[in-house]
Write a sequence for this structure.
């Protein structure tokens, strides 16, 4: 493992540790909230008893009792919410998922369940890029909430470069013409983009999200992982394709 990879894993581990600590703090805060609500219920009950013991019956007393009843109802609702959140299995499972990431850097089961595909638009764009009769030479796929969708497609490589922001994750599929005048041929490339400002958690999710979209984007000669704008360069892409040689049907990776 290179020093760069070790540094990346340590960086990821530190941030995942912080997330685990934050979630533990959140659970502790819910415990404090529950105790505070119990104390509030006790105070309200004592106040209610004192109001009930008043000899003087008046409109003000009836109004206070009505408002007090409403307050007790709201306190009971708050107590119920706090208790449900504390005992919610999903909160516990989230913490377990973070601990799993910390120990093995793997969150595949969680991400696989939450990330979806707009299969129709992705398949359409994929087929469009692969079609010899189509002018479309690239397609870009991005995250729309918890789904991966086709964000754009076109033929101008300059436009292609504009679709990868520093705070975004994305995928690209390209058709490039290779060879010389005597031997022209089309080759296909799959790129994964993780911008420099993407969070550590979203970086960790990228490998499983990539596996999901590759269920459709399966035919390419080269796969590249890109993390800076300078790497989105057509000459570097063609050089990688030249070095790759034959076609790769989604079974390997060739990095710059």
């Amino acid at each position: 493992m290179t020093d760069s990879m070790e540094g990346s894993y340590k960086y990821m581990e530190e941030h995942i540790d912080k997330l685990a600590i934050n979630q533990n703090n959140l659970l502790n805060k819910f415990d404090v909230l529950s105790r505070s609500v119990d104390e509030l219920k006790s105070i309200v009950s004592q106040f209610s008893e004192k109001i009930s013991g008043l000899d003087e019956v008046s409109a003000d007393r009836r109004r206070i009792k009505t408002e007090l009843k409403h307050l007790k109802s709201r306190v009971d609702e708050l107590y119920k919410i706090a208790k449900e959140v504390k005992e919610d299995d999903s909160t516990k499972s989230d913490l377990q998922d973070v601990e799993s990431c910390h120990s093995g850097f793997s969150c595949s089961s969680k991400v696989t369940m939450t990330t979806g595909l707009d299969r129709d638009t992705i398949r359409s764009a994929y087929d469009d890029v692969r079609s010899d009769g189509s002018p479309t030479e690239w397609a870009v796929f991005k995250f729309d909430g918890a789904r991966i969708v086709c964000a754009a497609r076109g033929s101008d490589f300059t436009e292609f470069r504009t679709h990868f922001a520093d705070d975004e994750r994305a995928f690209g599929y390209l058709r490039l013409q290779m060879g010389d005048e005597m031997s022209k041929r089309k080759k296909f490339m799959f790129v994964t983009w993780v911008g420099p400002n993407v969070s550590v958690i979203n970086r960790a999710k990228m490998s499983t999200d990539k596996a999901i979209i590759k269920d459709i984007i399966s035919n390419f000669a080269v796969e590249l992982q890109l993390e800076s704008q300078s790497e989105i360069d057509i000459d570097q892409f063609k050089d990688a394709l030249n070095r790759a040689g034959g076609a790769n049907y989604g079974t390997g990776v060739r990095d710059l």
